[in-house]
Every structure is written in C-alpha cells, then in structure tokens.
Hints:
The protein is an alpha+beta fold and 132 residues long. The protein has helices spanning 45-57, 107-113, 117-131; strands spanning 2-12, 19-26, 31-33, 36-38, 59-74, 77-91, 101-105. Strands 1, 2, 3, 4, 5, 6 and 7 form a seven-stranded mixed sheet that branches.
Amino acid sequence: MILAAGCVLWRPAEEGGGVEIALVHRPKYGDWSHPKGKLKRDETLRECALREVREETGHSCELGARLPTLHYPVNGEPKEVSYWAARALSGAFAPSREVDALIWLSPAAARVRLTQQRDRELLDALLSATAR
C-alpha cells in the first residue's frame, strides 16, 4: 500500500468574501490537483501533509478539519491518501520539476480546473467543513 497525505489549501478571497483554492499543476501527469505526496519513513500523516504543501506550493499552512481519505490504484498498487483542509499562512510559490504552476481560484473555477473527480469531492468536503 502506498501511503500519502495532502491538503485542500485555501485562503480568504481577496475580493467579495468567500475563499480561494490553491491548485498545483504537475507536468509529469499534465494535471491540476491538490498538493499531496508520499509519506516518508518515520513521518506522521499530518507531518507529510504539511511538508507536501510547503514543497509544492511554497506556503506554510494551518491544518483544519480532516477530509475524506481517498483510495485508488496507481500502477496496479493500492494508494491511500489522507487529506486535511488547510488555511494558507505565508509563503511564495517557486516552480519546480514536480510542480510547475500554482493558481488560486474560486471554488467554482477550481471545480472546473481540477482533473480528477475525486479531487472535486475533496473540494466539496472542504466547503462543507468551512461552512460550519
């Protein structure tokens, strides 16, 4: 089993209230997704989620509500990804080989841009968690 963790990273919208969602573009897969990555040895899932957000977006964040855990196969091997809602704090994006772009979008625009349906479901879970 491949273990990984990530976040649906958000910040207050600059105009009009609401929130903006951070999406990362991975050139290897040509997709738009939420920041996530594989668990390292002796790392907790929470530590992994925080590290992956920092590595892929350049931002530190504060973990919030736990979101659904996703399960899907990768090259015939099962993968389990634990997710949290995370409020962006400070930082600045720098492109890398792994992630070449970061965009901040309204939830409606993020829904359209996300490549995988499972990532749209995480977006819905975040919006439900932040509406409470």
